Amino acid sequence: MEGSAEKEVIKCPYCGWEFLLERTLKEHMEVTRRVKAPVESVAYTFCDACNQVPYCGIKAYLVDGQIVRIDSWEGFPNTPLCSKGFATLQRQYHPQRLGYPLKRTNPKDSPDPGWIRISWEEAYDIIVSKMREIRDRYGPEAVLFYCGDPKEMRPAVSRLATVFGSPNFGTESSTCFRAAALASQLMFGLIALGSLPTEDTKTVLIWGMNPAWSSPFNMRKLFAAKERGVKFIVIDTRKTPVADKLADIHLQPRPGTDAAVALGMMNVIIERKLYDEEFVENWVHGFGALKEYVKDFTPERVKGITWVPADKIVEAAVLFATNKPGTLMAGASTLTHTTNAVQTVRSILTLIALTGNFDVPGGVTVPTNPLPFRSHDMGDPDFIMEEEKIKMKDKRADREYVPVWAEIVHEQIQVNFLPEYVKDGRIRMAILFGANVTIWPQFQEYQEALKNMEFVVAVDYFLRPWTHNYVDIVLPAATNYERFEPFIWFGRKIYVRKPVVKPYLEAKSDWQIIFDLAVRLGYAEEFWGGDTKKGLDFILQKVGVTMDEIPIPGGKEIPAPGPEEYRKYEKGLLRKDKEPGFPTPTGKVEVWSTILEKHGYDPLPVFKEPEESPVSRPDLAKKYPLILITGSRVPMYTHSKWREISWLRELMPYPTVNINPEDAEKRGISEGDLVIVENSHGRIKVRAHITYLVPPGVVDVFHGWAMIPEAHVNALVPRYFDPISGFPTYKAVLCEVRKA
Ligand SMILES: Nc1nc2c(c(=O)[nH]1)N[C@H]1C(S)=C(S)[C@@H](COP(=O)(O)OP(=O)(O)OC[C@H]3O[C@@H](n4cnc5c(=O)[nH]c(N)nc54)[C@H](O)[C@@H]3O)O[C@H]1N2
Ligand SMILES: Nc1nc2c(c(=O)[nH]1)N[C@H]1C(S)=C(S)[C@@H](COP(=O)(O)OP(=O)(O)OC[C@H]3O[C@@H](n4cnc5c(=O)[nH]c(N)nc54)[C@H](O)[C@@H]3O)O[C@H]1N2
Ligand SMILES: [Mo]
């Protein structure tokens, strides 16, 4: 026919389907080939979906250099993969991933940053010259180095901070594990926050933690313990899967009153002389004063404070003190998310000490021969140059805000006062790896702080407007499939990985970015000429191996120098001077903390009402009668992440408030209604989910909906802080819910 060219029909060589357009055929062939072709190779990596340390293992199946399928890494200690783990595949090939360094062209207060693509060279030149400029004008400590929830880059960022001369390195642990760890250090002189049950364990106390959703890889071990007849006490305000499936006794305290529950249990244990007299006599400092203090916390009075029936407090106390050994699993975030954070954790650890469950087989133990690296910051004190950090402590931005933290927590500063540090002029520039500034209470103030700094760089997988709209340069990070740094370990077994695929467009690994910056700043010697593998080998030389000597996927066990020992405090195995006792100022478990006393805080693990509660603020409770818990973990999301991943988004499409049927009915609220949750700090709009998960009087909203600012619960969380740790009160504030 004249004028219309014959359309060519093209056939797919794999399935025979016929196509008219070459482009469509190409796309089709790409997918079909990947699905149909035999898997060409397999490779291994660690999952970074929830940033639990240690991680779960992923086995990737490849065709033509692309990952077509993933599964659990068989034989890896943490398994199986969860929904988020599987969704790392969709994240890997997500079209919105950051591929190039970006620079803003519009001023920081304009709604559109006007991002333009720049080269890595240009990005590095700008950053390095800004770092030098700020250092020359205000001193190196005016530069903040920060890592969010992602943990893999922390040692490298921390080292760069030290070498640059800034003690101001901080992490998301300013709101997470570190306050609990601090409580333990004040108490035992070391970090011991609980252990998984072993064959010896008879009772497990799970306190403010829901591993079914927050660390599902632990559930098999817990179910196995249940099968063996181990008893479980679960202390959680909500009726979680863990409470439902594991608990022999479930206590549901009013949010923020856990210290009173613990003191009530101590009252029973001391009155009935169920404590370990020998341990208390020899190893506890301050028992006399504690005994006096807990006299007031009778189960009846504690019921009035906490809502927990008196007989249940007695039952839990007697079981834990008599069915021994017992261990503890305590939420790093829940218990620290109140204005009584450190004392709450101390009160729970006191229970461990009084019942003689510290460092006995099946109890709360610390490893005898740990590898010389630290799991909480994935670090090695020598690699991050901790001694140098201690020498610079006078330049820490947090020293006047949280003096106890500044004295004990050498490796990182408390970042929660960032708005104040910027206003004070202490911090002028920030380098952020994997940061989300809306994780903080009244997050607008943190966005403002970024805006008011002279220069901010962020490194991420995606462009996150809620943070990146306030920064100057954004750099694309390579994912866990594209990088090999760092190594990880379980006990004494070390695992490494190789990059599974090439980085997306121009993305680079976080470690490489740090090492590149370091070399350009003139620290080639301190950073092994920019070779990240040599940096990791420097750490590994302590255990006599190199990265290349560790097989994949087998890993390498570093033989222990001796057998596992218990009651190490009796044998001089806990203190540097090799004397018996604990590494605390008195050499004992400090139920009465001499360090807190020195700084003018209550030395005993006291109960204090939350800053905002029906008891402390009856006036406010008239208007806002419900207690709000925020951020209890959901299985499909981690904080602000995964909302763009459709496999997960369809499991929880929109933000919700969990509300008990009784409270919903009173307010005429039906399932799925749009509702306003508000208090004196702010208001959000979400959908109601009516559920028995929460008891009457309590509502709960997941955090991290930064992409929907009107649903972001941190607008409702005030900036009230625990005086010892500086932790915010994510878990106990007042609010009201009404139909929108
Ligand atoms: N209301 C309320 N707020 C809370 C909590 C709560 O319970 N309630 N919990 C608090 C707790 S415990 C925590 S830990 C914090 C978490 O707070 P954050 O760690 O700040 O949280 P995320 O939203 O996960 O932000 C991490 C960012 O890092 C990016 N990223 C992920 N992996 C990598 C990587 O390997 N490299 C780089 N460069 N970037 C990466 C992600 O894309 C994301 O933008 O939130 C705290 N905030
Ligand atoms: N899927 C998923 N997994 C995660 C994360 C995630 O965002 N998503 N985040 C990771 C991080 S950073 C952390 S810190 C961990 C946290 O993990 P967990 O420590 O297990 O914390 P949550 O899952 O929030 O569970 C806390 C429980 O505490 C209860 N609770 C709330 N307030 C109180 C109270 O005042 N007293 C008592 N006794 N109970 C209370 C809640 O009902 C909730 O069930 O999870 C990690 N794993
Ligand atoms: Mo956390």
Question: Quick summary of this structure?
Answer:
The chain has 740 residues and is of the alpha/beta class. The protein has 25 helices and 27 strands. It folds into 4 domains: 4-35; 102-178 and 371-557, Rossmann fold; 189-369 and 586-598, Dimethylsulfoxide Reductase, domain 2 (3-Layer(aba) Sandwich), CATH 3.40.228; 618-739, Barwin-like endoglucanases (Beta Barrel), CATH 2.40.40.
What does this structure look like?
- The chain has 740 residues and is of the alpha/beta class.
- The chain is built from 25 helices and 27 strands.
- The protein is globular and about 90 Å long.
- The strands form seven sheets. The chain has a seven-stranded mixed beta sheet, covered by helices on one side.
- It folds into four domains: 4-35; 102-178 and 371-557, 3-Layer(aba) Sandwich (Rossmann fold), CATH 3.40.50; 189-369 and 586-598, Dimethylsulfoxide Reductase, domain 2 (3-Layer(aba) Sandwich); 618-739, Barwin-like endoglucanases.
- The site of one ligand MGD has 34 residues, from helix 6.
Largest sheet: 7 strands, mixed
Secondary structure tally: strands:
27
Strand ordering within the main sheet: 7-6-17-16-15-8-9
Count of all domains: 4
Bound chemical compounds: ligand MGD, molybdenum atom
CATH architecture of the largest domain: 3-Layer(aba) Sandwich
Q: Quote the distance from N terminus to C terminus.
A: 63 Å
CATH topology of the largest domain: Rossmann fold
Percent of residues in β-strands: 15-25%
Gyration radius (Cα, Å) is 27 Å
> What spatial form do the alpha-carbon principal axes imply?
globular
Helical segment count: 25
Tell me roughly what share of residues is in helical segments: 25-40%
Helix-and-strand structural type: alpha/beta
Mean pLDDT: 94
**Which blocks of ≥5 consecutive residues have pLDDT under 50?**
1-5
Return the CATH class of the largest domain. Answer: Alpha Beta
